[in-house]
Amino acid sequence: MAINERFEQLVREADLNSPVPEHEPERQAWFLARAKTIIEKRAQEAGRKMTFRVETFGCQMNARDSEKIIGILESAGFAEAPSEDADFLVYNTCTVRDNADQRVFGRLGRAGHLKKNHPGMKIAVCGCMVQEKSNVEKIRRSYRFVDLVFGTHNLYRFAEYMCTCIESDGMVVEIWDRADRIVEALPVARKYPFKSGVNITFGCNNFCSYCIVPYVRGRERSRTPEEIILECERLVNDGVVEIMLLGQNVNSYGKDLETSCSFAELLERVCKIEGLKRVRFMTPHPKDFSDDVIRVVRENEKIARHIHLPLQSGSDRILKRMNRRYTRDQYMALALKIREQIPDVSITTDIIVGFPGEEDCDIDDTIDVVRTVGYDNAFTFIYSKRAGTPAANMPDQVPDSEKNRMFDRVLAAVQETAHGRAEHLTGRVMEALAEEINVKDSSYITARLSNNMLVHVPGDPSMIGKMLQVRLDECRGFYFFGTVV
Ligand code: SAH
Ligand code: SF4
Ligand code: F3S
Question: Does pTM top 0.85 for this prediction?
Answer without folding.
Answer: yes
